[in-house]
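Exercise 7. Predict the structure of PhoD-like phosphatase domain-containing protein from Photinus pyralis.
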Amino acid sequence: LGGVGFMWKDVLQKNVDCGGFHVQLGLGDQIYGDRLWREVPLLKQWLAMSGRDNKKNVQWTARHEEDVAHAYFHFYTSHFDQPFMREAFAQIPHVLQINDHDIFDGYGSYPDYMQSSPIFKNIGRIATEMYLLFQHHATTEMMRNIRTDNDIFTITGTGWHFVKYLGPAMAVVGPDCRS
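Solution. The predicted structure, encoded as tokens:
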């Protein structure tokens, strides 16, 4: 139907027509990190390995860190810089929730030997850092230290959950159901 730009162009027009939206809610899947496994050679090699113990014991390296961080940075900058989308995000306040695809498909529901492996744990960490940076304009440290009655952002286990008050009679609850 012409790509994501046309949807955002329509959102911008509706924003003008109604006198301005109060907020836009993103309920996850703002980006699709699934392509990480196809585009990062070290991760393609890891996927091709046979044996549960082999995958579980692969150590995270500085090269993994650089390649995965670069990939997520590119996913966000290339997606959020699309025409009309960037304008909508600049003009309409937004609250965005993380979902598995913001990391990669199914994250949080894999068998424990994979989910607790250095590869998965560090991919999840980097994806969450990029989510906080691009979707909340914050860092992990900033979010850990939030102390306000209007915004609650909490970490339970490995999950990132929030309550965002949008006025005296409305709040958005964002449970992290995947990490």
